[in-house]
Amino acid sequence: MGSVAKPVNIGAGGLDLLMPMHVRVDPQGRISGCGPTLGKLLTAPPLGRPFFDLFEVRRPAGIATPAALADRTGTRLHLALRDGGGASLRGVATPLHDGRGLLLNLSFGISVLDAVRRHGLTDGDFAATDLTVELLYLVEAKTAVTDELHRLNRRLEEARRAAEHEALTDTLTSLRNRRAFEQTSEALIAVRQPFGLMHLDLDHFKAVNDTLGHAAGDHVLRTVARVLLRETRAGDMVARVGGDEFMMIFPGLADPARMRRVAERMISGVALPVPFEGQLCRVTASIGMTLSVFYEAPALDAMLADADGALYAAKRAGRGIAVLANPGCSSVRRA
User: Which pLDDT belongs to residue 15?
Assistant: First the structure.
């Protein structure tokens, strides 16, 4: 049996302030009052209801009657709330000052954070001297710091992605640049995925710059970029790798006939006159191309060299055409 505690004489208002989780039990074992915080946990008004209808004393074992509870005043109790979600509580009982019942001061113990979240409690629901208030301040501070760190990490990740995108993007046309082209090509070779490669060079572009100025030339390059994007799939890559040079990668493409059809559409689109400030800019496109399936062990340098050779063959053959490389042979095949 626990030690007998001395009765206390505190009014209901004082109890609510000092012990917002208290419950008062009359000699018949019915609840005669409870603190405001405890009241928030209950789904129905507790006054007049038997204490053991609402609470289960789990430790010490064997406390299931008002007399047994009164016999364990001053003993640490472990309770569960039958009403209000089964919250786990800690408490201690002491006689009321008039000798007519018991006063139990309860707390959440280590389950306080779960109770705060579940019942929407704030620091105002706890006594000012309760260490729970300090814990809530610490949790709030930690949450604020954690949220700010998450926001900072998101901003840093967004900035990293933006910087990476910018480093791989041609500023004039918004196409990918040579670095992006090389990374993608090497990645496809590393995983042995078939792909097609095109090297496109504009014909007569210098004449546009010389006669209409560099603003006209930039306008033509942006227009050509849109044509190339229109003739490629979402998973393909179009890159500007030089002044008027473009490279295209076609993952999964292994059919020469399909490669030729794509090249022909690009050449037709590029050949359309481009209006600029009342003038028409006219350029054509020559294309050299190859397929990774032509190589027993594809290597980017070898594929680029063959595509360049095919491009020069297209230029020599009159420009405005596409030529498919034939690796291992001195000749190339005209598309």
Answer: 78
* Residue 244 annotated in active site: yes
Q: Where are the alpha helices (DSSP H) in 101-195?
A: 112-119, 131-167, 178-190
Q: Tell me whether the omega of the peptide bond preceding residue 46 falls within 30 degrees of 0, making it cis.
A: no
Closest Cα to residue 36, out of 63, 54, 50, 18?
Answer: 18
| pTM exceeds 0.85, yes or no | no
Compute the residue count for the chain. Answer: 335
- Asked if 287 and 200 touch (Cβ cutoff 8 Å), the reply is yes
Sequence-distant (6+) residues with CB within 8 A of 54 are: 31, 42, 46, 81, 82, 83
Please say whether the beta carbons of 12 and 33 come within 8 A: yes
Q: Are 322 and 263 in contact (CB under 8 A)?
A: yes
Selected residue with higher pLDDT from 162 and 209: 209
DSSP 192-222: T--EEEEEEEEESHHHHHHHH-HHHHHHHHH
pLDDT of residue 176: 95
Cα pseudo-dihedral 305, 309, 310, 311, rounded to 10? 100
Mean predicted confidence (pLDDT) in 227-243: 95
- Please, what is the average pLDDT of the chain? 85
Closest to 284 (Cα-Cα) out of 220, 222, 237: 220
Beta-carbon contacts of 188 under 8 Å, excluding residues fewer than 6 positions away, are: 195, 249, 251, 292
Residue 252: pLDDT above 80? yes
Catalytic residue among 244, 301, 306, 308: 244
